[in-house]
Amino acid sequence: MAIVEPKNKTVKELEGLHLYHGNISNCSMRVRMTLEEKKLKWVSHHIDLKKKENITDEYFGINPNGLVPTLVHDGVVHIESNDIIDYLDTAFPDPLLRPTLNEEKMLEWLKLSASLHVPGIKPYVYAKKMASKLKKSQEEEAKYKDLQKNEELKEFHSKHAGQSMFSDDDNRRSEELLSDAFSKLEKSLVGVPWIMGDQFSLADISWIPTHFVLVGCGYDFNPYPNVVRWVASVQERESYRKGILDWCEDFSKV
User: Fold this and answer.
1) What pLDDT, in 10s, does the model give residues 106-139?
2) Which of 30, 61, 91 is the last residue before a domain boundary?
3) Nearest to 208 by CA among 53, 52, 85
4) Phi, psi values for residue 175, rounded to 5°
5) How far apart are CA 71 and CA 81, in angstroms?
6) What does the DSSP assignment read for 187-247?
7) Is 97 domain-assigned?
8) Domain boundary among 67, 91, 115
9) How many domains does the structure of the chain reveal?
10) Domain carrying residue 41
11) Exposed (0-12), middle (13-18) or buried (19+): which is 1, by Cβ within 10 Å?
């Protein structure tokens, strides 16, 4: 459970569920979906990533990585989206979004999703679509370097700073990781509707936003027919509409 002590003490006064999130952020999408699945009331604090609204002393004082989403529940700050949805399912267990058996397998899917984000998903999305749209000015670059203490994130963003571009090796590695992950997902969905079998779970919520943004970047899912079938089922859920489409109808148009 990723809980942090905020430097921005104003959030400690917040009551209820408050979500700092970005409309185009796949990590924010999974938290919004979880909140909608559980029919929870939550207060939206939208962070416009294209306007660099996350690169401020105020927001880094809430989330030390400057990332979205951040959940504040009764003044307690939670970061890392997969940890947040796991927390929400524990704190608000109706309806339960984890299997009563083999919970560890579900958590492994969440861990894989999280581990894939920086080396696999972000390079692909940035290289194919978002690098130019999220390009920082020199002033913004300096501000980000001053605020950001996470070395992995600093290294990632340095690869598309200024006139820099992701290398062929970065892009190749990203596509290899994505191929391996979706091949594994394809096998897991043989003969079953959901990742964990017959029950819709946090595993499905964790992975569907990745599909959404990758499709918007032109990723080809035709080699994965079981994944395509699974996506169609998830898209029928109200939480998909409210958690994803109501905020970002078409990622290809971002």
Assistant:
1) 999 999 999 999 999 999 999 898 888 888 899 9
2) 91
3) 85
4) -65, -35
5) 9
6) HHTTT-SBTTBSS--HHHHHHHHHHHHHHHTT---TT-HHHHHHHHHHTTSHHHIIIIITT
7) no
8) 91
9) 2
10) 3-91
11) exposed
